[in-house]
Structure prediction request, 70 residues.
Amino acid sequence: MGTASFSHIVERLEIALRGDLPGPDAQLMLAPRPRRGWRPGKAPADCRSAAGLVLVYPRGGIAHVLLTLR
Prediction:
């Protein structure tokens, strides 16, 4: 993968975030197979809301991502 300027990355992220979320189809692509109790379109009663955060920062005019090893 090549490098991109920070401003280009920010522009692409802003465009992507204006669109709709991918929804259940994208979640199914990442779900383990088979997933017990999973019914597409209906979340289990004990599910929780979740979120993720990606830190993208400029360094030398190039976009970098911070990764944490746990």
Observations:
- The longest strand covers residues 56-59.
- The CA atoms of residues 22 and 43 lie 16 Å apart.
- The helical segments are 6-18, 24-30.
